[in-house]
């Protein structure tokens, strides 16, 4: 070795050298491309199957769980580049999986190829949600009622089904669970683990069926110096639906849409629209429900009336055309009101959905 030529600071060997002036032999003696723990611990709730990762509970596919455990167990040299990692999982039993790991890469000018094995062991741990369920924990109660009448079984089933629909459209949350539910006098009560779910469901029902909500809070204790409260949400569904015909102020009106303070009404005798508050309609009488109305084919028509076959007795009947008839529609929607068929103006089908107005 000539004077001034680079040398290894450990053994004096010549080039090539690493960035810290070690020859390849000395560098490999002191450095590894990667290190990996022999075992990695995972936790799973035996009741619901959720996994505990990153200090929180959630549902994970097996592949995602193993990747997270590998990420936690495998450490790669900070100066490594062009790193490639290949894995193969081998199931030992229901609680143990062996992962074969191959790591390729370079540190400075030297290429490395490492082989590792890590066993992921899964232990039982009861999650927070199941602990609370077993202890009948809840944060909110939603009370479903109707204004001025008892809810029918079909209405309760429809309202309760809307909660399942809402949950399917929301991001999963471990606190979105039902503690208990059941029929009560005049309606249905649902006790649940989340205040936000209770509020979201109440808003969802208002957008679909109208009505009003009332919130009350009760203090049940203290935690870390702060009051712990429970929420009760009372939802009152109107005694009428979209498309129903009401008698109000001695005239017939059809419920056209919902808004925050009450429904939008369409007059049946002329082209007129008005808003009404929930209090205004407390004494309104439902003359024809949308679900009981029928659609019939017209047999004959003139400028003011049309003939159709009554589906009850198959006799020919005559009905006055609604104010919005354009003379082209082959069918009419009829409601049985005060012992006669009445042709109703066209409105959007309530089942097609709508948007509630907030002001």
What would a concise description of this structure say?
The protein has helices spanning 24-30, 62-73, 128-134, 153-169, 195-209; strands at residues 34-36, 39-44, 51-53, 56-58, 74-76, 80-91, 96-107, 110-124, 140-146, 178-184, 187-192, 212-223, 226-237, 245-248, 251-258, 263-267, 273-275, 285-288, 294-297, 300-301, 305-309, 316-320, 331-337, 340-344.
Could you explain how this protein is built, in words?
By secondary structure, this protein is an alpha+beta fold. Helix content is 16%, strand content 43%. It has five helices and 24 strands. Strands 4-3-2-8-7-6 form a six-stranded mixed β-sheet, with helices on one face. A five-stranded mixed β-sheet has the order 10-11-9-13-12, covered by helices on one side. The chain has a five-stranded antiparallel β-sheet with strand order 17-16-15-14-18. Strand 2 and strand 3 form a beta hairpin. The longest helix has 17 residues, at 153-169. The termini are far apart.
